[in-house]
Amino acid sequence: MTEPTAPALPVVRRLPRYYRFFSELKKNGVKNISSRALSELMGLTASQIRQDFSVFGIKGQQGCGYDVTETAAELGGILRLDRRKKAVLIGAGNLGRAISEHMDFEGKGYELIGIFDSDPALTGTVLRGLNIMSESELAAFCLANKPEIAILCVPTEPAPELARLLYDGGVRAFWNFSHANIAAVCPDAVVENVHLSDSLMILSYLYDKNC
Amino acid sequence: MTEPTAPALPVVRRLPRYYRFFSELKKNGVKNISSRALSELMGLTASQIRQDFSVFGIKGQQGCGYDVTETAAELGGILRLDRRKKAVLIGAGNLGRAISEHMDFEGKGYELIGIFDSDPALTGTVLRGLNIMSESELAAFCLANKPEIAILCVPTEPAPELARLLYDGGVRAFWNFSHANIAAVCPDAVVENVHLSDSLMILSYLYDKNC
Description:
The first copy, chain A, is of the alpha/beta class. Chain A is built from nine helices and ten strands.
């Protein structure tokens, strides 16, 4: 696997989708697939797929296309789903609970090692097999357990201070569901934002345009 | 407000963020803001902001910038947050419950009028003030209540059939949390996808690159 240049973000953003499709094909017993057949399945052009794959050094075989098992493994490897990543989740409200219970963290290499909330009523209750801890224990927990990634399911207001505390504790990646600008307080960390209410507003706009 | 050409999707995707910032500025009592001050706040260039705003006919005043109250209202109007949109939510599992309880639907013009689940154990229980209904009641409900938008918090497998049923019942917009390709079964509907597990995979990739 060769990676000649740093891939552009739009290409990177397509990787999980390729991974999902190849995993599904593998599950269905498909052995090989051409970029053309894949393009029909995915709604991308065959040349786009070939170009994306070449960025990551994924090669097909003339005449028989991509080996499904091999390509699925390559894509999973590129996404580093095999790398164990210790994660903490901050905020065990409706959203935090759903995220903790709904997501297949293990399947993506994440190990959820701690859940924290500011509400004393939640402290000590169990979520996804973990005792919810108080946010006041967060700094000491980071020192002792060295989480690498934090999932922020807290409101916008407390998010920057919590992020900074986590950053000082060694966290360098954030899955951010708040609207806070985490990159501003944690300059060299990776931040992946999920702005659900923005998405709902975009749907409102697009729906209206479509009527 | 003039809209000379159909705005490109990346511009549209920035609209909710502008709306959030102007709403926040308004809440904080800010009267006017220049594109330069806004650019520092938002991490976009001032020329990008002016260009985006000009697409939607939003004008500032030479010397004093954008009127905050006026611009917030204009952005909300463009996003059609004032338009009442009847929505149904399908799937009252962890994610569906969190979405129904966490989101400010009303603030974005959505009215949640029905929640459905395939699990008989959930039917009749209350969520966000609504009695969860059986999916077998969905077609009749659409006929009687004419929802316009559906929130799909179901697994990938049943999603296309449910989407088609909703489409036949008049639904033309989907907020899709499943991995199903809804656009393929509902050709002229608007589909806004939220792929949480893709986002988690991208974080894995970016984190690893950043180490």
